[in-house]
Amino acid sequence: MLKKDLDKWLKKLLGSFIIYGPVVIKRQILVQKITQVKTVDYSGKLPQNSFKEIFLPAEQEIITYQKTKVETVINQEAKNIIAWGLNVLDLKALTLYEQVFAKDPYYQARRRQILVIGFHPADAVSAKHYKNFALELEDNLLEHLVFDVFIIKHGANFIFYTGTKRGQQFLENQGITDYQHVAFIGPAKEGSIKAQELAGLISKSVNHPVWEKLAKTCLACGKCSAVCPTCYCFDLTEKNCSRCRVAGNCFNSDFGLVAGGNNFQETIKQRIFFWYTHKFVRIPQQYKYAVPGCISCLRCYQVCPVGIDIRKVLAELKKPTTKK
Amino acid sequence: MNNPYLPLAVKILSSQAVSADTKLLTLQLPRATRFDFKYLQFIMAGLPGWGEAALSLTSSPEIKNTLAVAVRQVGGLTTKLQQLKPGNNLFIRGPFGNGLAKELLNQSVLLIGGGCGFIPLRPIILDYTAGKLPLKSLQTIYGCKNQRALLFTKEQATWQAKSDFKVILEQPEGSWPGKQGLITELLNQTQISLTTKIIMVGPPLMYKFVLKSLLAKKVLPSNIYLSLERKMYCGLGVCQHCAIGPYYVCKDGPVFTYEQLKNIPEAI
Asked: CB contact, 8 Å: A72 with chain B?
């Protein structure tokens, strides 16, 4: 398919779906609701924000209750959704959500409404050219990513792949029959060596001076967690007679505060260590080193007001220290 | 798909004071509801508009149609819970956590409870003194601030008659015929064998001193079980609030051996 045909097709889809994707706004690439086909970005560069909120809404009603009746609330969107143009790193994050929320009725209901279309401009950036420091990007990458449809741009050509039956049906319904099917064979080979090394590094580092040093510069603003595609923690809150699930943030001062006053995440040092432990120890261990706790997108570094660079933190941890 | 966030409405059967600030709520399970649980497991209990809190189960797992929790007044929700009357509804999820069961069978067991940490230990004493839990022996040491904070005083005579049950108060008010001091003083007078399983529940400060004392007595870290308290929302190992190092208190805990925790400084 050529670009002009792709644009024409996307324009048609806008009539029947709510479509989110990378859009160029004032020279910035942002994941947003697509309203105009010509603003969609196909450069392959990472958008400033991730697709997290499309899959995990920042606030979601989950149950209602009256005096004796308790009911599950599953709010559906008026129209089906297309997540358009996810790059391979953000698809890695989606692959993680699929594991974490495998038994979550709210995630699953929302996911059923979202068709995922990945995109990669093979001629512009190789998957290996992302500033990757924490991932193993397999050669047969598509087999390890979750998507319904994947579009690869080769020169002027947009070539279609499908990853699910749903993707196949969707393309067929759209009159697109020229595609190849790539069967999903699992998140990744279990036991990623890079992930195991990082897990070992972080879990042994609690007394490493780097945490103390970071605690002196970190403002605990929590922007890194908000922007991070793999930060999915949440709080449950009450609203009238509903219980809601809202995005949490482990940099909030009350994240570990229990009734009675004990605060288990009292210091900034504890919160930073907690953040790294979640990404590099808990996520990989919980999911058998098959999904990443960090997708190497560096969005945390881009939004950090004091310029904390996750790559430098990991590098510092790898250096031998005297104080152990 | 089963929804783990959807609570079960249960009726309050009775509410009775078991100390100056703690009430024992007995809950009637709906007919045909199976609610099997293990020692030291907990539930998430909530009320519309007030959120949920993790509450220790304090009844015997042998009792199948009712449950009991003991609620100390510490915040908004627990104040509301204390005001519940028989017939009112409470919304619960669970049971959560690993709990203990077969680890204890036919062992010499020492229970160490501090303050309201005693609540989840009560089922072990209830079952043992009722002849429903085969242990080699059961010793309990229970430390509390004063008489007002002392829980389940009416039941203690039976426990003393049928097991080795000792109480120490840190700052007794008025006349107190029993022991006065810190729980470590009782611990130092307690015989612990190499194979004794020690189950303790109490505040972090108690853990620090008791652990020091136990390790000085050469107790193996793998024989020390302790239950941890953390903030939690989901109970499913997802929301992250209760995480400690590689573990989730809601799922991998709340009971950990000291062996599991000894290299995690933020745990205790």
From this structure: yes
